[in-house]
Amino acid sequence: MSNETQSTPADKIIGNVLSLEDEKTMDEPGRELETSAGGPVEEILKERIIEAIRTVYDPEIPINIYELGLIYRLDVNANGEVEVDMTLTSPACPVAGTLPPEVEQKIRSVPGVEDVELELVWEPPFSIDMMSEAARLQLGLF
User: Fold this and answer.
1) How far apart are CA 123 and CA 86, in angstroms?
2) For each of the chain's 142 residues, which pLDDT tens digit applies?
């Protein structure tokens, strides 16, 4: 059995921060680096995806869609595959045809992302309770 770690597309995102091999040598002897869902590679990639999503704004509300609570689910695996469930503030939203493709494009632009599956969902319906505290404060909703 080989001790070599097989590189995945998501490994590319670590860049100069820390490679998987560096992380293994820093870990306790004999312990394998966790690379399953929720492991370090996925968490780094997920944070970079969230940063990209935060650059997308609802044109009617001056707050990014992540803080608005429009992203219901964001799953990332070590192969760089991303699954997203998102909603809009209303089914009649004027950007219903353009906002989801914009979000998908922003996610695809993140280094390490190999595939994106984005689904527009309506359950549960959007409400202000889904907004972050910062978004509610910015809009004066206490």
Assistant:
1) 10
2) 444 445 444 444 444 333 333 333 333 332 232 333 456 889 999 999 999 999 999 888 889 999 999 999 999 999 999 999 999 999 998 899 999 999 999 999 999 999 999 999 999 999 999 999 999 999 998 7
Interatomic CA distance for residues 25 and 142, integer angstroms: 48
Q: What is the pLDDT of residue 18?
A: 34
| Inter-residue contact 76 to 49 (CB < 8 Å) | yes
What one-character-per-residue DSSP string does 110-140 give? STT--EEEEEE--SSPP-GGGS-HHHHHHHT
Predicted TM-score of the model (pTM): 0.72
In the chain, at which residue ranges do the beta strands (DSSP E only) sit? 71-76, 81-86, 115-120
CA distance 91 to 29: 54
Domains and CATH numbers, the chain: 11-139 (3.30.300.130)
* Cα–Cα distance list, 132 to 58, 70, 86, 91, 135 (Å): 15, 10, 15, 21, 5
As beta bridge partners, residue 64 has: 57
Question: Distance between CA 112 and CA 81 in Å, rounded?
Answer: 9
